[in-house]
Design brief:
15 helices, alpha/beta, globular, single chain, 349 residues, binds ligand FO1, 12 strands, 7-stranded parallel beta sheet
């Protein structure tokens, strides 16, 4: 009988050499945690999963965009990552499941306006998750179980916090809106005075993954509402800053005109949230938000003119094509795999 051996447990299986201490150390050095929001994560996660060794990638996703809608707990960023990994994500729309239908939504519409659309297949996940949460499961346990059910357990997907911790937005006209009310209902069009990040306790599994990781990657996600919300949890920011290697990916390709309406909405939201902090939506201004974390900053090759400003903040700068997830994943792999340190030197130039 073959004993269960998830990852490198050192168990002696007949015919399978036990990894040496050096091999174990090398393997653990490659463990990568990707901290992310929805869109950026769903695009990058499958490519990164394919680039790194099986079982070495953990994704910590933002839960500040979560909401309770029609009595169900909806976790847009976790679900975008889950669907992305499962190959089910709607790349055109930028959220939800490809080919989903909206029959239940039509029925709900008979009882009042529905400003947040939940697809029929998507609803199945929200029903199951809400039920498990009401039985006392943590969101971490629910999410791990969901990745197994969707056959993508080769990546560990974790919520940043187990607590409902919805971000809210104070608008310049004096309203206080839930993040999704501002983003979806108001189309991210209202000017923002202040963003209120809950700073809920970090989920123990997420914090442990970050503490033990060799490399923590801050994905190409909104630096305020996605990564800012994760880093606002007590202990998260210092855990990231203490990781042996930190890599920050610019969420912006400043020199490229946006044609996709979903991406344009993300950019509008990012501009508004950065403006509330007196910042512009440029790689250098975004890098400034992470200057205490430091490490390597990945910039799109088209934005090379920002390199000096980012280097002045103390980052090593690497350029790649940020609009090509496979190329970005290869760049990350080259930076994180000790066996490919020669390649890492090349991408640094
Ligand atoms: N975005 C929209 O613009 N309109 C919607 O009705 C909508 C519904 C929705 C349902 C489930 C889900 O996982 C995501 C959904 N999103 C919708 C996307 C979501 O609002 C944002 O993309 C993220 O929160 C921003 O990262």
């Amino acid at each position: 009988v073959t004993p269960p051996c998830p990852g490198l447990c050192g168990a002696s299986i007949v015919g399978t050499p036990v990894p040496t201490a050096t091999e174990r150390a090398a393997a653990s050095r490659q463990s990568i945690v990707l901290m992310t929001g929805g869109l950026g994560g769903a695009r990058l996660a499958p490519a990164l999963r394919d680039a790194v060794r099986p079982g070495h990638l953990t994704i910590v996703a933002n839960v500040g965009d979560d909401l309770t809608y029609n009595g169900l707990r909806v976790c847009p960023d976790l679900d975008s990552n889950l669907y992305g990994l499962a190959g089910l994500w709607d790349t055109e729309r930028g959220w939800g499941r490809r080919g989903d239908t909206f029959a239940a939504q039509e029925v709900l519409g008979l009882f009042g306006s529905q400003w947040f659309s939940l697809g029929d297949y998507d609803l199945g996940l929200h029903l199951w998750r809400s039920q498990r949460l009401s039985e006392g499961w943590t969101l971490t346990r629910v999410t791990i179980q969901a990745t197994l059910a969707f056959l993508c357990g080769d990546v560990t997907l974790l919520p940043a916090s187990d607590e409902a911790s919805e971000t809210s937005v104070e608008t310049r006209d004096g309203r206080l809106l839930g993040f999704q009310e501002w983003y979806v209902h108001e189309h991210a069009s209202l000017q923002v005075r202040r963003v209120r990040l809950r700073g809920a306790p970090a989920a123990p599994a997420a914090l442990a993954a970050i503490t033990e990781a060799d490399t923590v990657v801050l994905g190409p996600s909104n630096p305020v509402s996605s990564l800012g919300a994760i880093l606002a949890s007590p202990g998260m920011r210092s855990a990231v800053a203490e990781a042996p290697h930190r890599v920050i990916i610019s969420p912006v390709v400043a020199r490229e005109r946006i044609v996709d309406p979903g991406v344009e909405r993300h950019a509008t939201a990012r501009r508004a949230l950065l403006a509330a902090q007196g910042l512009r939506d440029t790689p250098a201004h975004i890098a400034w938000l992470y200057k205490d974390i430091g490490g390597t900053f990945i910039l799109d090759s088209r934005d090379n003119h920002e390199r000096r400003a980012i280097e002045k903040l103390g980052f090593a700068v690497v350029t790649t094509n940020l609009l090509n997830p496979r190329q970005l994943a290869a760049t990350l792999h080259a930076l994180t795999d000790p066996e490919r340190s020669g390649a890492a030197e090349q991408v640094r130039t």
